[in-house]
Design goal:
Layout lengths: L1 H15 E4 L6 E7 L5 H15 L3 E7 L4 H13 L7 E5 L3 H4 L20 H6 L1 E2 L2 E2 L2 E7 L1 E5 H6 L8 H17 L6 E4 L6 H13 L11 E2 L4 H11 L15 H9 L3 E6 L3 H5 L10 E4 L13 E8 L6 H11 L2 H11 L12 H6 L2 H4 L1 H5 L6 H4 L3 H16 L5 H16 L2 E2 L6
Helix pairs in contact: 1-3, 8-9, 8-18, 18-19
Protein name: Carbohydrate ABC transporter substrate-binding protein (CUT1 family)
Family: Belongs to the bacterial solute-binding protein 1 family.
Keywords: Signal, Transport
Length: about 425
Amino acid sequence: MRKYLLLVLALVLVVSFTAVGFAQDKTEITVAAGSVGKELELTQKAAQMYMEENPDVKVNVLSTPDLANDRLGLYLQFLEAKSPKVDVYQVDVIWPGDLAQHFIDLNEYGAEKVADNHFQEIVQNNTVNGRLVAIPWFTDAGLLYYRTDLLEKYDRKVPETWSELQETAKYIMEEERAAGNPDFYGYVWQGNAYEGLTCDALEWVFSNGGGTIVSPDKKITINNEKAIEAIDMAAGWVGDISPTGVTGMGEEDARKMWEAGNALFMRNWPYAYTLGNADTSQIKGKFDVAPLPAGDSGSSAATLGGWNLSVSKYSEHPEAAADFALFLASEKVQKMRAIEGSFNPTIKSLYQDEEVLEAVPFFGKLYEVFTNAVARPSTATAPKYNQASEIFFQGVHSVLTGESDATTAVQYMELDLKDLLGYETGEPRQP
């Protein structure tokens, strides 16, 4: 992994700084941005918009790895070296507590004037020791994508429970294969050993009454029968309604298989909606989205995701960097990204915007899914969330690949989390 990150860093420094515009004697800043779906394209567009309004500033857009764990590793190489090469970082909603020491307080640069426009839960998440270390940019929650044409063809309804999903996926998969598509599967999702699997597996576990791995009151809760049942359930999908290769899939892998018309259901984030309706997509106009199914708890669970913008303490131009970060998080840019990329705004008023709702109707229909999403235990485990998450997703992955059984895996998770965090065990809270 370290060799990979060093190679990425070298390539980044030599090749990947994409200058959006150029002129002499300008203040020059760089934003490290994601490249999943249309992220990079829309960040470059926003950078161009900013430079047109601020001709004395040149903005470079740095593409970063798709997988969150690889991106964090790259960031840490810059931050721990106190490098001024990157001024603005796109940071995961789970990172502010761990990375706060490297970022400026945006309230000192005008953020306090606009913070009330955003979802307050995210603002609070990004406030560490009274310092706003990240401004909200877009929020996320896991969704179930489904083929409307195939459910209609086989007279099946959108599944409300995991059992219904499994049964419907199995039936239609077999029918579609018999009709001549041997590559068709019932369900694709994020099964690789990375943060995305933590998100997916938390949804299975929480919706089944198995808690949130570590509770908000700092009790380790993962070793329970409901969690074991949920992980076992998902392991049963591998090689059945899901391809064996799902254990190596990230968001983009699942999306590409889905857009090729080779899956009935997909778990993914909202960004996949616009891309699924692109002219190049085989399922354009043939799908919709719904809340993820429920387990034994009777409640659906969607993991809270999303990304924010932070300004490095090591930036040589903190004023310009902060101004650009606030511009990216502004209503104008968030609206553009919502319409063109189906990125969920963090500005509340945009969920009543007619143009936004026309482009992405489910923003209104599934509003409660986004506002009631289940948080990963990043606060309860800070500043060791990333290590705690790795213990969880590696343990789950070992079950998915058949290297371990779920009972043994959660027992080891509990022991490893106790060693890492020093917390006691407890009972999971019910949804």
